[in-house]
Amino acid sequence: MIVPASFESRMKDLLQDEYEAFRRSYEQPRAQALRVNTLKLSAEDFLAVQPFRLEPVPWAPAGFYYDGEEDRPGRHPWHEAGLYYIQEPSAMAVAELAAPQPGERVLDLCAAPGGKTTHLAQLMRGEGLLVANEPHPARAKILSQNVERMGVPHAVVTSELPDRLSPRFPAFFDRIVVDAPCSGEGMFRKDPDACAQWSPDHVRLCAARQEDILRHAALMLRPGGTLVYSTCTFAPEENEGAISRFLREHPEFSVAAAQRQDGFGSGRPDWTADPAPGLEHTVRIWPHRTRGEGHYAAVLRKAEEAPAGGAKLKLETGLRRDKLPEPFLRFAEESLAEQPQGRMLLFGDQLYALPEGMPELAGLKVLRPGLHLGTLKKNRFEPSHALALALRPSQARHAADLPLGSAELAAYLRGEAIAGGGAKGWQLVLASGYPIGWGKLADGQLKNHFPKGLRWTGVPAK
Ligand SMILES: C[S@@+](CC[C@H](N)C(=O)[O-])C[C@H]1O[C@@H](n2cnc3c(N)ncnc32)[C@H](O)[C@@H]1O
């Protein structure tokens, strides 16, 4: 692979004796991995049934390398069922370092396509409030689809620039992840565009943008909270340099020692002028030292004594229980084995289950104010694909389990009706035990409700 000459000479200066090993890493195939979605099943249970050749990613308990030549996990029905997320292995270090706890308020500020969001969601076990934000509208849509596929029940997806969010959430979040837009030097093997766009000017532009994003993130973190900053680039200006500039402007923050894992290298204070204390506790993941494309991550702590935010935020009250729309109650009674709890919100004809402690979001661009339950249509309720993927099989009254490799499952994924039996009405369709969508039974036919945009044109892998 050919990399820009000025990039090569920068890396030679930085890495010196190690440069040759680094350069040779570009001649190797990139490492490919998936992360088991522990919102749906444990890594052990997945290993017991899955068909790929997997090896553990050392720094992520649910992460596994797969063989990119032999296996196509992105073309397996269980990918549609959200059993795993295909993610670059070094990127899995970030949510592990953020270590969010169930019940916390967590913000993922630069979130599309959703690798870290969905990882944070599973570490939170789906409990608390997870705000996933992505300013770019098309990318925000993909983020929202991934949140849906992974069955995340407690996420709000917004699409705003950080300066529109920070006045709305002063000192609100327990943890914030800033996985910053960067010059992407760690993406060269995967994404030739990142390589073609690289220039020293682009590095400078990214560094300025990162400074701005971090400034707004700082405002939204509560005293004592944790901010994790990461990039997939090697450029010191965007890593140790960005953290040093941030800490100079924000004395209420300090570097916390990142949990050391096999394969993590140290941040390099010697690569930036005027280094902030503690940079050696930040993390560098290198493609020539580990099976990963490369990442930088810093864990920062805001002092307990830092000023708290302003007034308490007004929470979204949602609908009173006795005001829930009758068609939804009828659907829940007929089709769900457990009645949904918690507050709900009607947004036009769309019904959502709100995450715990969700503040009012009026005036913000919101793609998803919680778990989408479905749509009210005249006198009936149509459950959403998001609800199907967030349910456990036992939570549906009626299910049709289609075996992997069967003609019925292939037909369902292509959007066709299939022969069905059992109770009339909504049935949760499973792919060998895992929910993949809805079907509606009438006259011995299961009408297909697998979303049009997701339908397969080929035959599913066995
Ligand atoms: C490195 S990617 C995030 C990857 C994502 N966290 C994941 O794990 O899948 C950075 C994202 O930041 C978004 N972005 C660009 N400018 C931004 C800004 N000013 N504030 C927040 N996010 C921004 C980009 O559109 C991009 O989707």
UniProtKB/TrEMBL annotation:
Q: Which organism is it from?
A: Paenibacillus pasadenensis
**Pfam families in the cross-refs:** Methyltr_RsmB-F, Methyltr_RsmF_N, Methyltranf_PUA, RsmF_methylt_CI
Active-site residues per Swiss-Prot or TrEMBL entry = C232
**What does the sequence similarity comment in the record state about its family?**
Belongs to the class I-like SAM-binding methyltransferase superfamily. RsmB/NOP family.
Residues forming the SAM-dependent MTase RsmB/NOP-type domain are 22-303
Which PANTHER family does this chain map to?
28S RRNA (CYTOSINE(4447)-C(5))-METHYLTRANSFERASE-RELATED, NOP2 YEAST -RELATED NOL1/NOP2/FMU SUN DOMAIN-CONTAINING
Q: What is this protein called?
A: tRNA/RNA cytosine-C5-methylase
Q: Where does S-adenosyl-L-methionine bind?
A: C110, A111, A112, P113, G114, G115, K116, E134, D179
Listed PROSITE patterns: SAM_MT_RSMB_NOP
Q: EC?
A: 2.1.1.-
UniProt keywords (A-Z) are: Cytoplasm, Methyltransferase, RNA-binding, S-adenosyl-L-methionine, Transferase
Q: Which InterPro entries match?
A: Methyltr_RsmF_N, MeTrfase_RsmB-F_NOP2_cat, MeTrfase_RsmB-F_NOP2_dom, Nol1_Nop2_Fmu_2, RCMT, RsmF_methylt_CI, SAM-dependent_MTases_sf
Q: Which domain of life is it from?
A: Bacteria
Q: What class of enzyme is it?
A: transferase
In the record, what terms sit under GO molecular function? Answer: RNA binding; RNA methyltransferase activity
UniProt GO BP: RNA methylation
